Amino acid sequence: MDANPSSTAGVISILERLHEFIPRLSPDDVLTVPVHGDCLSVERMVDAQRARLADLTSVDRLEGAQPVPQEFHHRAIMLQVPLLENN
């Protein structure tokens, strides 16, 4: 893909491409499938979905891709939380 994963427009383009592989319940409705990534990628996916909140269909709102942090990154963040709270 020729899309910039560092920009919201690029992530929207990537998620639109991923939606081509997500099963549909109807032409305007899709199943929800987890999409794993590091924490920054998950944050960018959430930002891209927020940018599309006003769209009419779940397909257009990119709701079929559920951003989920990879376990390694999730554990690293959970280990950092107590350290940040004690400082």
Describe the structure.
This protein is α+β, with helices and mostly antiparallel strands. Helix content is 47%, strand content 17%. It has one domain. The protein contains three helices and four strands. The longest helix has 16 residues.
Percent range of helical residues: 40-55%
- Content of β-strand: 15-25%
- Number of E-type strands: 4
Arithmetic mean of pLDDT:
86
Annotation keywords:
single chain, two-stranded antiparallel sheet, 87 residues, globular, two-stranded parallel ribbon, alpha+beta
Per-chain topology:
Blueprint lengths: L7 H12 L4 E3 L2 E2 L2 E5 L1 H13 L13 E5 L1 H16 L1
Parallel strand pairs: 3-4
Antiparallel strand pairs: 1-2
Helix pairs in contact: 1-2
Quick rundown:
By secondary structure, the protein is of the alpha+beta class. The chain has one domain.
